[in-house]
Design goal:
The complex is a heterodimer of chains A (228) and B (475).
Chain A lengths: L2 H12 L20 H11 L3 E4 H4 L1 H12 L3 E4 L2 H6 L4 E2 L2 H5 L5 E4 L9 E5 L4 H6 L2 E6 L2 E2 L4 E5 L6 H5 L3 E7 L3 E2 L2 H8 L7 E5 L4 E2 L7 E2 L6 E7 L1
Parallel strand pairs in A: 1-14, 2-6, 3-5, 6-9, 7-10, 9-14
Antiparallel strand pairs in A: 2-4, 4-5, 7-8, 8-11, 12-13
Chain B lengths: L7 H9 L2 H24 L3 H17 L1 H14 L3 E5 L2 H14 L4 E4 L3 H6 L1 H7 L3 E4 L2 H9 L15 H7 L13 H18 L2 E5 L2 E3 L4 E6 L3 H5 L5 E7 L3 E2 L5 H12 L7 E5 L13 E7 L3 H4 L16 H5 L1 H6 L10 H11 L17 H5 L6 H15 L4 H18 L2 H18 L12 H4 L13 H11 L1
Parallel strand pairs in B: 1-10, 2-3, 2-4, 4-7, 5-8, 7-10
Antiparallel strand pairs in B: 5-6, 6-9
Helix pairs in contact in B: 3-12, 16-18
Classes of the chains: A alpha/beta (228), B alpha/beta (475).
Chain lengths: 228, 475
């Protein structure tokens, strides 16, 4: 049946029926004294690991994450990620000119020293399979639930976000909103990306005997660094 | 799936005797239901949010034609295609033809109850298209050749031993490799290559926002994300009732859904899909097809009271609270939707040709209505469906006249104290003579079934009137 026929059938069934009003009042949603603190608390509850650059310094935060992920390499979603959080880096002039950029920083023995020395990387399936930790930035985070927002766009890949076993997201304190409604009503800009994902902690399942297991398809280790 | 509901009682008796299913079902209450209770208590304006959710759904359902047209227009202007399907057969035919035209060889699928309703995976397989479930529970069920036994926990009836065998763990390795962690890792390894190579990805849709043409998918595992990352074509399946008017309506439903379903404040992933992959994006589908399935839903709208059935957001909270579901499990129902919501949905979706016993399989305790996040009056709908089924089904006409006779006789006795006293005196005498044994079973219907596993309660030796009279006489 065509679209017009289906809609006509529905119209016929619905004609003369009572039509309740669409509610306009917005229910009161939680607000927090210190959204960053609530964000950390909520994310830790669901198995996320939150590090604070104020107390540890960014270099140490990144080194700690490499240690926990048992890796020496970050694959970054473009240099704009690093610029947004004032992470010093150096990159070749030729690489700078490339539009679509996935960049890699290599840290022997897991020690991160600034400035990061970056090289561009072609994002092949093989590269994705061998990536332990992908790193990006969230332009919105939600205190109420410990959630970060990922959006597709230039230098963003769904596979790079969803496949590796570990994920690092840099979250600026300024980008943390109080609650889900605030994030959805003000921060989504749906028309800009074909996919926006609100992600809260590691990928999880309880499909086998109701026992919680993390890392079923997506990242099992979920790191966030809070920046200023 | 085609419902196989005629053998409801027989299948229910079988699951009652299956210790593994019974063990699995215990977790439904202790994990999901208790988690939901905690969240409901911890959310200060839970009741307000339920009312708001119910009101939005009531408005949307009453204007379904308007919002579906708006949704279709916006999905198309975002670059997607929309297909309205009257029934499962039409939807399956459209998708199989499309897949064959594009020479699709392999399909990956994330969880979708509508696809179960359509029996889509079987149709694809019959057409020679390899279709793989990627939700862990659904993957296990697919390997077992079964259907889901719970809306959100499809493999709840399976033990880790059974799952290990299904995943191909060798018998000698069994003791080492049957922990849920090991089995999950094994399934991840088995499924991983398919995400990268499939020609088509299929997902369900939890909510579709009419004003923006955005499809919202809620999940915990990350397989829906990957199903829309690698394959060049994304097929999104939804029942027509899943549309909501505005983006601002979504937060309330997200809260209600995740808290009611699993007791989580929010699921691990909430995806907003607006159109196809844009030029500068690295991956994502080049084409998006949204299938809007009616399959009996528009018929439910005819009755203004029963139309609230379509407000369901498929959280499964009513299953987790239901003493009947908790005892017989999901497979006993023989239909896509089980438990209390299945009991009201199945007969209506199938125009009263299937699931007719389901509304009677309820103790009417009211737990389902109490936990429903959008306040569907499930117990009242069960009663209404019972009435409708009794009145319309010719096959139950003889039972109906017997029932009517029984109630008339009961009224005749109860409305006259002399008749009531005489009858109770006779029963007391009769039970002393006839039922001196411990177990009381009645040989005739309908009490035969009731007394098969229970004792008929005995009347006390003396009635209240007799006790009162004797006491007065003594004084």
């Amino acid at each position: 049946m065509s679209r017009s026929e289906t809609l006509a059938t529905l119209r016929k069934v619905l004609v003369g029926k009572n039509t309740p009003e669409l509610p306009t009042n917005i229910p009161k949603m939680p607000r927090f004294k210190d959204p960053a603190e609530t964000f950390s608390k909520q994310l830790k509850k669901v198995g996320g690991i939150v590090l604070d650059s104020r107390t540890m310094g960014l270099e140490k935060c990144l080194s700690t994450i490499l240690g926990k992920a048992q890796s020496e390499i970050f694959v970054w979603e473009g240099q704009d990620t690093l610029e947004a959080h004032s992470i010093p880096f150096s990159i070749s002039r030729a690489a700078k000119k490339q539009k679509q950029q996935f960049i890699l920083s290599n840290h022997p023995q897991g020690h991160v020293i600034f400035p990061l020395r970056l090289s561009t990387v072609e994002l092949t399936l093989e590269r994705l399979e061998n990536t332990t930790i992908s790193a990006g930035s969230a332009d919105v985070a939600i205190a109420e639930t410990g959630t970060i927002l990922f959006r597709t766009g230039l230098n963003r890949s769904r596979l790079l976000f969803g496949l590796p076993p570990c994920r690092l997201t840099l979250v600026s304190r300024r980008s943390i909103v109080h609650n889900l409604s605030q994030a959805i009503n003000a921060g989504l800009q749906l028309e800009e990306s074909s996919l926006i994902t609100l992600t809260t902690g590691p990928s999880r399942t309880a499909d086998i005997e109701k026992r919680l297991v993390v890392g079923v398809h997506g990242p099992g280790r979920w790191f966030v660094i809070l920046t200023d | 799936m085609k419902p196989r509901t005629a053998e409801f009682k027989k299948t229910a008796s079988r699951t009652l005797r299956d210790p593994q299913i019974q063990r699995g079902l215990e977790a439904v209450y202790s994990n999901f239901h208790v988690g939901r209770q905690r969240q409901a208590v911890a959310t200060p304006n839970w009741e307000d949010q339920q009312d708001r959710g119910r009101a939005i759904k009531a408005h949307t359902i009453a204007n379904l034609d308007h919002y579906l047209a708006m949704l279709a227009d916006n999905v198309e202007s975002n670059g997607g295609h929309v297909f309205f399907a009257t029934d499962a057969e039409e939807a399956n035919r459209y998708l199989v033809d499309m897949a064959l035209d594009r020479r699709v060889e392999s399909v990956i699928k994330s969880k979708s109850m509508v696809s179960e309703e359509m029996g889509l995976a079987r149709e694809f397989e019959s057409a020679g298209i390899k279709t793989l479930e990627t939700d862990l529970g659904e993957y296990i069920i697919q390997l077992a050749g079964e259907t889901p036994s719970h809306l959100i926990a499809p493999a709840i009836h399976k033990s880790s031993d059974q799952i290990a065998t299904l995943l191909g763990v060798e018998a000698g390795e069994m003791s080492k490799s049957k922990s849920p962690e090991d089995l999950t890792r094994l399934a991840r390894t088995q499924l991983r290559p398919h995400f990268e190579r499939a020609d088509m990805g299929i997902t369900g849709v939890n909510f579709a926002i009419a004003e923006t043409g955005t499809l919202v998918i809620v999940e915990n595992e990350g397989n829906a994300l990957l199903s829309t990352a690698g394959p060049p074509v994304h097929i999104a399946l939804m029942g027509i009732e899943k549309v909501i008017p505005r983006l601002s309506d979504l937060p309330v439903f997200l809260r209600l859904l995740t808290k009611s379903a699993t007791g989580q404040a929010i699921s691990s992933y909430v995806h907003f899909i607006t159109g196809t992959s844009q030029l500068e994006e690295f991956d994502g589908p080049e084409q998006l097809y949204l299938i809007l399935l009616d399959n009996g839903r528009s018929q439910i709208l005819k009755d203004p009271y029963l139309a609230q059935t379509l407000s369901c957001i498929r959280c499964g909270a009513c299953l987790n609270a239901c003493p009947v579901y908790e005892t017989i499990g999901g497979h006993a129902y023989g239909s896509t939707y089980q438990g209390p919501i299945g009991a009201i949905l199945t007969p209506q979706l199938h125009n009263y040709k299937a699931g007719l016993k389901h509304p009677f399989a309820s103790s009417l305790c009211g737990a389902c209505g109490e936990v429903c996040p959008v306040k569907i009056e499930i117990p009242h709908i069960l009663l209404k469906l019972r009435e409708r089924i009794q009145l319309t089904q010719a096959e139950t006409a003889s039972n109906l006249s017997l029932e009517r006779f029984g109630f008339r006789l009961w009224a005749w006795i109860m409305t006259c104290s002399t008749r009531f006293q005489t009858l109770s005196r006779w029963i007391r005498k009769a039970q002393r003579i006839l039922f001196s044994k411990l177990v009381l079973q009645l040989p005739f219907s309908p009490l035969k079934y009731w007394t098969r596993n229970r004792e008929l309660p005995r009347l006390p030796p003396e009635s209240f009137r007799d006790l009162y009279q004797n006491r007065r006489d003594r004084e």
